Amino acid sequence: MSLPPGFLDELRNRLSLSQVVGRKVMWDTRKSNQGKGDMWAPCPFHQEKSASFHVDDRKGYYYCFGCHAKGDAISFVRETENVGFMEAVEILAREAGMPLPKRDPQAQQKADRRSQLAEVMDMAVQFYRLQLKRGGAEAARGYLDRRGLKPETLDRFEIGFAPEGWQNLWDHLRGKGVEEGLILGAGLARASTKGKQPYDVFRNRIMYPIRDPRGRCIAFGGRAMDPNDNAKYLNSPETELFDKGHNLYNQGPAREAAGKGNPLIVAEGYMDVIALSEAGFGATVAPLGTAITDNQLHLLWRIASEPVIALDGDTAGLRAAMRVIDLALPLLEAGKSLRFALMPEGKDPDDLIRAEGPAAMQALLDAAIPMVDLLWRRETEGQVYDSPERKAALDKALREKIKLIRDPSIRAHYGEAIKEMRWNLFRPNRRAAFVPGQGGGRQPWRGKDGPAVNPGTKFSILAAADDAVQNRVREAVILATLVRQPELIAEFDYEIDRLDCADPDYALLRDKLLDLSHHGQLGDLENRLAEILGPGVLENIFALPHVAIAPSVRRQGDVETARMTVSEEFAKLQAEKGLSAEIAEAEEELIGLADEAVTWRLQQAAETRNRAVRSEQEDNAQYEIGKNGARIDRSEREALDRVLGNISFTKRSR
């Protein structure tokens, strides 16, 4: 409906914003100056104890210095009453005594019908409340008494009873002159498919009225008294008044309580809401017979920036909580999230309060966990990550979830939080970082029964200078490639963490790469590393001939080439390490009885190492460094042949 020019200005001029706002807040008398229209209060839009919500009565505007909510009287009513623009104007116009312009006939007719339906619903509320006090409701009263509901609680929540019989409410309303179409339109009765009179929707059920934020009864929830009833809980069908995905049970009182600083709690059912409210947790709501919808999430965030989801502690409740996570991830905004209070297994809030009192519930609310923690728990609980494939599957699942977050800042912070938890899961006892003067800060890689390097043994291949040089070259290529392609660090972090760097500078660079990646500080990486390590470390690595000519270093931005190079270099180092382990173990066995099994194991390890070397020869031929590669390969084979010859000689001698 269009409004005549000047109508809104006149409406704002007639109203005192402080009076409109004053219905929802408690003014800070020490900070406010009523004479100047300068009013302060705790913000009704987010939970706080200090008075950061400012109303300038003379200008007709409000502003919160905490959550930055701002607007005029119309926007305040829209946000606090959860109504549309025209409904907010109607509310304020009635308060100001201003008649609204006439609507077009169709809009007026629709508004009149909604008002009539609301009146019929209130008549039904009174009928059900009366029935609860009569003889046919003895079992219902006994149930409510066992649940600990006092008479004043029944009155506060207007709990009633729908008696057995097909047409009790129908006959009552028709006797009051209510039109049949209004009874059907309110969702209180259904038309018969057998040509008979319509019949009541609710029969032999405890009745819970559902009101909108303005206090109008728009629907009912009914709990069956017959244990054999197909539906334990039944809600009104959707009508012109009621859209179950756009409303919450106890929304109006909960919003008022949240405005006074109480945490907003989302429970599962009517009785949970009532029990929590009676225990002092007045800002409690519940979805209406369905899983929480995106519209309901937005309603929750209008009331509080961080509602606490407190669903039942059974399997169904946990599944519902997990569904909320998937629903909420794309909707997250700065300052708007969810926390989760995990109920004890098999208990709901009502059970917990009756068994252990409000203090137990408060303890759970105080321990409510952020949504990112529950997401991590869902993806990891009961899983064993003892292989690279399982770890990769976890990484993929978490990446897919984080991608759902639209806000780039929140997405980045979720990535940091997940990275932190992943770090702790995969490296609970990570070894210390490099300390100057103490080498790489890591113990030498050990074989099954002892260190891989034993300087006193005459059979050790790792003691050969060529091997040490070649391993250092491989480490340098890996580290230099990662510096140029830092996005690969997270992908290879497990292998990087196990990289044994004999060179202290390499060890320090390795640890700094992991730490910076872990803390999400990979931007402008080369300059950052130069500041931390000094310019000489990177310059020395990039000046090495093998590093300088490596395509993975020269072709900055070629991620696939870099990924392939890092993967191959790690494979070669691992093959070398496997051979070293077998030789170290063989040295111990040669002190006793050497047998053919020792020789066989060495041959197998050598073949594995040689396959890696042959692969490297092919790579070196491609990049024109074949001569250097061949020289190293021959020396390694000669050293291995010497060991195998000594083993055979030792066996024949014995």
TrEMBL record:
It holds the Pfam family Toprim_2. Binds 1 zinc ion per monomer. Residues 262-344 form the Toprim domain. InterPro entries: DNA_primase_core_N_sf, DNA_primase_DnaG, DNA_primase_Znf_CHC2, DnaG_bac, DNAG_N, DnaG_primase, TOPRIM_DnaG_bac, TOPRIM_dom. GO terms for cellular component: cytoplasm; DNA-directed RNA polymerase complex; primosome complex. It catalyses: ssDNA + n NTP = ssDNA/pppN(pN)n-1 hybrid + (n-1) diphosphate. Keywords: Coiled coil, DNA replication, DNA-binding, DNA-directed RNA polymerase, Magnesium, Metal-binding, Nucleotidyltransferase, Primosome, Transcription, Transferase, Zinc, Zinc-finger. Contains an N-terminal zinc-binding domain, a central core domain that contains the primase activity, and a C-terminal DnaB-binding domain. This is DNA primase. It comes from Thalassovita mangrovi. The gene is dnaG.
